[in-house]
Amino acid sequence: MEKRVREELPKARRLVVKVGTKLLCGNTGQLDMKRMRALTHDLAEVWKHGREVVLVSSGAIGAGVGRLGLSRVPQTIPEKQAAAAVGQGILMHLYEKLFAQEGIVVAQVLLTREDITNRMRYLNARNTLETLFHYKVIPIVNENDTVAVEEIRFGDNDTLAALVACVVDADLLVLLTDMEGFFTRDPHKSGEGKLIHQIEEITPEIEALAGGKGSPLATGGMETKIQAAKITMEAGIPLIIASGLHEGTLLRILEGEEVGTLFVPRHDRMQARKRWIAFGSSVQGRIWIDEGAVVALLRNGKSLLPSGVTDVEGCFEKGAVVSVVDPSGREVARGITNYSADEIRLIKGKKTKEIREILGYKDYDEVIHRDNLTVMSDFNGH
Question: Is the pTM of this model over 0.85?
Answer without folding.
Answer: no
